[in-house]
DNA sequence: ACGCTTTTCTGGAATGAGTCAAGTAAGCGT
DNA sequence: ACGCTTACTTGACTCATTCCAGAAAAGCGT
């Protein structure tokens, strides 16, 4: 587990590399998402406030948008949930979501090709295949058995 | 192209088969979605009102939920859009969405197995693999070329 | 260190999808 | 046709998110 300082330094470096100014809220958002991936805007705001003190809601939204735009964050919007963000970008990985508790786990793309080439493209030019697996996480499986 | 009456009769039959009461709003919603698949709640409401007269927004939402629950409709929520519905159920087909105009096309699942079995399941028990392809539809490709 | 530029703050308001609650209407089995 | 049960109506309401505008603060190249 890296220290907060290591995470902050790394976040600052990524911001600079992307040509963005290094500001406390931006670093805070990146650190928050390293600590808790797939968090929504509200959760990110709470994390950032916990470590930085007062940060406006607008600032959080601004930062999330700016960093997503710059390619430092990836935004995902699972059905039935608000927008969520993660720092793992650049590899088109997929997600596994628990139907019961909503926890999200990353999944590496199994076989690259099959998912990217549907039988009929209807003339579409595709640039991304987004895969979401739905099911029950280990905890919720046992919880369900106890009820039954 | 089937007539409205054929669509209504068919919709009523499906409702009865599912053990649901046959009401005008329900039939209207099913017909609307036969005519325009992947419509959102608001679009469905407009279609239904055009053919039935006044129908409350709440009724439309209730019907969409009830029919989804009963398995007569499938609900999808693409990123950046509101919930959309379709009458094609029972075959876990996928979707292709145009980033520019938002049009949605159905896609048969290419190779059944590969998409359903990620490398690492992290202990999850999966029941569905949802695949969304993003790209440009034929119309928007030409539109983009004209701009460039 | 200075000053220009970008970012953030305050805070208020609007939007739009969707939900809750309680009363009214309608389907359908008998 | 009756009446029970389910569905629909009405209207207020929540919630995430966006927009707005001006003022204050902070980053960073020189």
Automatic annotation (TrEMBL), chains A, B:
Annotated SUPFAM superfamilies: Winged helix' DNA-binding domain (SSF46785)
Superkingdom of origin: Bacteria
Alphabetical UniProt keywords: Cytoplasm, DNA-binding, Iron, Metal-binding, Repressor, Transcription, Transcription regulation, Zinc
GO cellular component: cytoplasm
InterPro entries with a match to the protein in the record: FUR (IPR002481), Fur_C (IPR043135), WH-like_DNA-bd_sf (IPR036388), WH_DNA-bd_sf (IPR036390)
Keyword Metal-binding included in the entry's annotation: yes
Residues given in the record as Zn(2+) binding sites: 98, 101, 137, 140
Major localization class: cytoplasm
The protein's name: Transcriptional repressor
Annotated source species: Jiangella anatolica
